[in-house]
Amino acid sequence: MARDHGGNIDWAIAQYGAGDWIDLSTGINRRPWPIEKVSAQAWHALPTARASRHLTQIAASWFGCDPANILPVNGASAAIQMIPRLFAPGNAAVLTPTYNEHAASLRSANWSVTKVADPHHMAGAKLAVVVNPNNPDGREWSPGTLTELAQKVGHLIVDESFADPRPDLSIASGFPDNAIILRSFGKFWGLAGLRLGFVIAHTDLLAKLAEIAGPWMVNGPALEIAAAAMADTDWADETIGYHSEAGLRLDHLALRAGWQQAGGTHLFRLYSTPAAKAVQAALARNHIWTRQFPYSDTWLRMGVPGNRHEWDRVTAAFNALGRP
Q1: Which residue ranges does the record assign to the Aminotransferase class I/classII large domain (predicted)?
Q2: How many whole angstroms separate alpha carbon 155 and alpha carbon 293?
Q3: Which of 14, 71, 108, 230 has its CA 20 to 30 A from that of 38?
């Protein structure tokens, strides 16, 4: 069964025509880290253990944890598919609304899934899943709250795919023994095509996950590019500053259009609109693609435009909507 998700730009093109589309449906950084050069070795040879160790050392500095507790994987989504296979199926609690992938992958591995709206209702679950900050509403929980939750469940999965601009929310630097943390590379660094993510956990769990994943889980160019990108802290600081201001700018456009802010993170904003599907269609006619959710008639999520050309087009599209 097809799962609802952002990034379905092919469907938008089929419905509204080809052209110069701005895809704001995913929350992926529209100002990606600039790739300058990839070595011939990365392209022509199998990925080396040395290249993987080099990346994990740099990632460990970024996450604030021991390199031995990091496993690079083929995207955070790959980890979401593999983690249910680490344990015998049982009862899982998923904090919702959030990515549909977590619940779907658990069910496909024969887990019984309960969706809950509050972390306090997850106690007793064999496996608990929390996205922090959450997608799509940006809800966030302190490391103290999550550490306390870990004491009440069998294993705690914390998906920190949108946490790179918010290190204060991460539990990576001192995670409980029964916690598994997921991090995404593609979202903050804007290079989703590399399909790279990280799992942070204690070594026994990482060994089991590595056995499931098999050899050469991450390709050589991804290892090399990510190591250079994650070491570029000047770029990261500038990017966080840009998105802090740009999110407020997008909020201003939305409020002026009569929408209400419903949440968000540095990389995306969530709004409550009079009729989300109609608004999505109106923006799509201007070749701006956003995310509407099948479980909400009012929520519309938008990524942050990345340059002056995109801001001009988004501003013009908002002005064309008018105020209700």
Answers
A1: 37-312
A2: 29
A3: 71
Confidence bin at 323 (pLDDT 50/70/90): low
Residues 11, 13, 14: CA angle, nearest 5 degrees: 65
Q: What contacts 157, CB < 8 A, 6 or more positions away?
A: 83, 102, 127, 128, 129, 130, 179, 180, 181, 182
- State residue 138's pLDDT score: 97
Check the CA dihedral 135-269-31-6 and report its sign.
Answer: positive
| Alpha-carbon Rg for the chain in angstroms | 20
Overall average pLDDT of the 215-244 stretch: 97
The CA-based angle 108-110-77, given to 5 degrees, is: 40
Contact (CB, 8 A) for 269 and 254: yes
Which CA distances in Å does 132 have to 85, 142, 149?
Answer: 22, 9, 13
Residue with tokens 């509050």: 118
pTM for the full predicted model: 0.95
**What's residue 321's pLDDT?**
87
Listing from the earlier edge strand, what are the strands of the sheet with 260-264?
260-264, 268-272, 299-303, 291-292
pLDDT bin (cut points 50, 70, 90) of residue 201 is: very high
Cβ–Cβ under 8 Å, residues 56 and 77: no
Bridging pattern class, strands 155-159 and 127-131: parallel
The distance from CA 79 to its chain's CA centroid, rounded to whole angstroms, is 12
Task: For 104-134, write each residue's pLDDT tens digit.
Answer: 999 999 999 999 999 999 999 999 999 999 9
Kindly report, residue by residue over 9-39, the tens digit of the pLDDT: 999 999 999 999 999 999 999 999 999 899 9
